[in-house]
Design a protein that fits this description.
single chain; mainly alpha
Length: about 210
């Protein structure tokens, strides 16, 4: 029994990580409630998933709150243009669906716009990850995160499956909203960090950030 309850037991460690994912998912949902803060909340979620859950560094709440507070301005400013684009695409999807029902040829663009929405979701994850791990201007974050999304289609496809697969499951079983956002971020971070290591060497960027502070 003592061995079973040992914190170093793989089963116990897994259970703790699942609980941490639940806490982070709830925090992300709460801090995203005014949709304009979703960018900062997503950056904080990625930072906490990477540092606390994957690297087992620091404390859960402190990891999330510190990342949210320190990156709030640039995360929000970079998120707003992407949010505007996503809302515009969603509006187009609704309009094109109506055209399909009326037999209008323009309705054929429905599939194209839907794909663009899916890509925008992946870009949003790369943007949150980039903001969590690197310094830079809003323009740089938008530009580099988009480039990395497009430059690695297979890894981006994996991120797409993690994000939109989780969204589909949540729509089917709403209770999963208390777990899957952080799990999707966890899976995505594995793929995104591989991309970062190929291009950007995150550890060097973090050292520079500490020196600047």
């Amino acid at each position: 029994m003592k061995t079973l309850l040992d914190i170093d037991n793989p089963v116990i460690r897994f259970i703790i990580k699942i609980f941490d994912c639940m806490v982070l998912s709830v925090l992300w949902a709460v801090f995203s409630l005014p949709i304009i803060t979703m960018g900062a909340a997503s950056t904080a979620l990625y930072s906490a998933v990477y540092h606390h859950i994957r690297m087992e560094e620091g404390y859960l709440w402190k990891s999330f709150w510190t990342a949210f507070k320190e990156n709030f301005k640039r995360s929000t400013l970079s998120w707003l243009p992407l949010l505007a684009m996503i809302l515009f695409l969603v509006y187009d999807v609704v309009a094109l669906r109506a055209l399909i029902q009326n037999g209008n040829p323009l309705g054929r663009l429905f599939g194209v716009i839907l794909v663009l929405i899916l890509v925008a979701g992946v870009w949003a994850m790369f943007l949150a990850a980039y903001c969590a791990r690197f310094q830079g201007t809003v323009k740089d974050m938008l530009r580099f995160s988009f480039y990395l999304t497009m430059a690695h289609p297979l890894r981006s496809l994996g991120v797409l499956v993690a994000i939109w697969g989780s969204a589909a499951l949540i729509l089917t079983v709403p209770g999963l909203a208390a777990l899957l956002p952080a799990v999707a971020c966890w899976i995505s971070s594995i793929l995104i960090e591989q991309v970062f290591m190929l291009h950007l060497r995150p550890e060097n960027a973090e050292k520079k950030k500490e020196e600047d502070e």
